[in-house]
# Entry
Amino acid sequence: MNFDVLTIFPEMFDGFWQHGIIRRALENGKISARATNIRDFAEGRHKVTDDRPYGGGCGMVMKPEPLAGAIRASRKRLPRAKTILLTPQGRSFNQEIARELVKLKGLILVCGRYEGVDERIGYDFIDDEISIGDYVLTGGELGAMILIDAVTRLIPGILGGIDSAEKDSFSQDMLEHAHFTRPRMFEGREVPDVLLSGNHAAIETWRMETSMIRTFLKRPDLLKARSLSSSEIEILKKWCLEIEKIIQAQPVCGTDALSGGE
Ligand code: 9D3
# Structure
């Protein structure tokens, strides 16, 4: 995968390229990535990239010529790449879009600043528009990093574990099970016995159960949207029975009248 980022703040990416999985992917040639300064394509002594909006109003707009120049140069370098504008108006980025983008040869990521880019850049220079969520940022750079991060870890052979990315595709509609590592006792809290039992079937069941209960408590929307396996249904039924037992153990009318609410 080849990433080309177009921005007026290329230095923002210096740290990003230098760490973790992105760095390793660059080193072993799984990705190429560079941040190009849009200002390098601006004319005149002052290399201006923004201007006041026609029709008035506050804020500035990114001038079309430097953007067009930068995109043309990128397309020469990456002729088969898709050009994506990071903008609050784009479709909301998610794992499904990440899986769609990892199939492509290259991505030219255009980072807007100020109030936005001149509308005419959208006509011939942009193939797709992506937002990273419903909150207001100061520009597209962090969005580009998020997109690169999410897409890179999906490239085959990038993640340490053989199946980490593949496992995501099964579990992405559920929250993950709880994780523990050494020490066995931390500030008075112990690691659950089952994880030390060596009983792999029991561990698997426990993990599925913690995954289910967390999803139920924190993201019930995910559970409702999902078709459940028979073992998952068994877990839910078991909880139902437990809850039912608690209710059955109560006196007939409950204790509401004694609680002093009214
Ligand atoms: C006054 C109206 N604002 C729209 C909500 C204008 C505006 C705010 C922020 C225009 C551009 C920006 C800068 N944001 C991005 O470039 C951006 C972004 C975002 O703000 N939220 C989520 N995803 C993205 S991707 C790029």
